[in-house]
Specification:
Strand content: under 5%
Number of domains: 2
Order of helices and strands: HHHHHHHHHH
Number of helices: 10
Helix content: 55-70%
Largest sheet: none
CATH superfamily of the largest domain: AhpD-like
Distance between the termini: 37 Å
CATH architecture of the largest domain: Up-down Bundle
Radius of gyration: 18 Å
Shape: globular
């Protein structure tokens, strides 16, 4: 008889990830990171586990935060919702539990449509999307699953959908970023905060 798994899908402070890394107490962090974590508490109501996990090395934490904030919150013709939609489609292709949970919740919240986050998690192709969004997500999925096969035809399809060259750069950058985060979160068994699970439904 196959032994039943005892793995728990609840994020506990002592077991953010499977790796045994020296995650410091918040009061041991540098002042700028303490302020950033406090801002997360105020804005979100909790600290995302990915940030807590990265805090074992504050150089890496700052680099991650800077890249995330630039790509997801910075100036772009892609809306914040569209960037979150890319995050979900990439994470679905990679089957990344952490990012699907966290960014699926962001899509639910930003869209005001609980079903959209779930549909993108399961199969973005059945979601009700604009032509622009469909082209964007088709490209993000293709770049994730068959990157060596993407090229001029894909760029042409994005331009036909209304994206300019800067937009295409942004789509590529967000797609690449979440492929990177998926490939850190999954093998380290990073667990999402339980607050994501019931929110915005």
């Amino acid at each position: 008889m196959k032994k039943r798994s005892t793995r728990r899908y609840r994020a506990q402070p002592a077991s953010l990830i499977a790796l045994q890394l020296p995650i410091p107490r918040r009061d041991r962090l540098d002042p700028d990171m303490r302020r950033y974590f406090a801002a997360c508490d105020e804005h979100l109501g909790f600290l995302p586990n990915v940030l807590a996990a990265y805090s074992f090395d504050q150089v890496k934490l700052r680099a991650f935060v800077a890249m995330y904030n630039d790509l997801m919150l910075g100036d772009s013709r892609l809306s914040r919702l569209e960037r979150e939609m890319i995050a979900v489609v990439v994470s679905a292709a990679n089957r990344c539990y952490y990012c699907l949970t966290a960014h699926g919740q962001a899509v639910r919240e930003m869209s005001g449509d609980p079903s959209l986050g779930e549909t993108l998690v399961m199969n973005y192709r059945v979601a009700v999307l604009s032509r622009r969004q469909r082209a964007m997500l088709d490209f993000a999925h293709r770049l994730t699953t068959v990157p060596a096969e993407t090229g001029a035809a894909d760029r042409k399809a994005l331009r036909r959908a209304g994206f300019n060259d800067r937009d295409i750069w942004d789509i590529c950058a967000v797609t690449a970023f979440f492929n990177m985060t998926n490939r850190i979160a999954t093998p380290t068994d990073m667990m999402p905060n339980e607050q994501y699970l019931a929110a915005s439904r």
